[in-house]
């Protein structure tokens, strides 16, 4: 299995230190099951701030893995509901709801600007980077990447790299 994330999330992680955490959410009164698996970075593109991780799984799994379906980032509309999933401020497996606030934004944080980003008011704080931005049907439409802020705090505009960039 492979996971797409941001390059800035994995660039300083050593090859022996990369871990991917899965959580099943629990059912009824059951506590959620948590599983930590080793991963390996198999591809990066610093210019688009993307990376691909191969997740290693052997034997019986505690938490089943289900790939998320891809949505159509090219067909997004301003005002459309979205959900940002991540780990803001170390609070694992968090979700925030918002809307598409703008399309085709430019994110200028590296050696070269990233064109076509999705602007959202869903909270994308430190720790949300690399998580999926989902449409209302649960399809991945982007990768949460950055918050643009004038104050240096977590108040600002969230940006995600679209899946069809």
TrEMBL record:
Which Gene3D superfamilies does its entry note?
Answer: 2.40.10.120
**Keyword tags:** Hydrolase, Protease
Q: Which InterPro entries match?
A: Chloro_Bact_Ser_Proteases, Peptidase_S1_PA, Peptidase_S1C
Q: Which Pfam families match?
A: Trypsin_2
Entry keyword annotation includes Protease:
yes
Task: Give the family, as the similarity comment puts it.
Answer: Belongs to the peptidase S1C family.
Its protein name is Serine protease
Query: Which organism is this entry from?
Result: Durusdinium trenchii
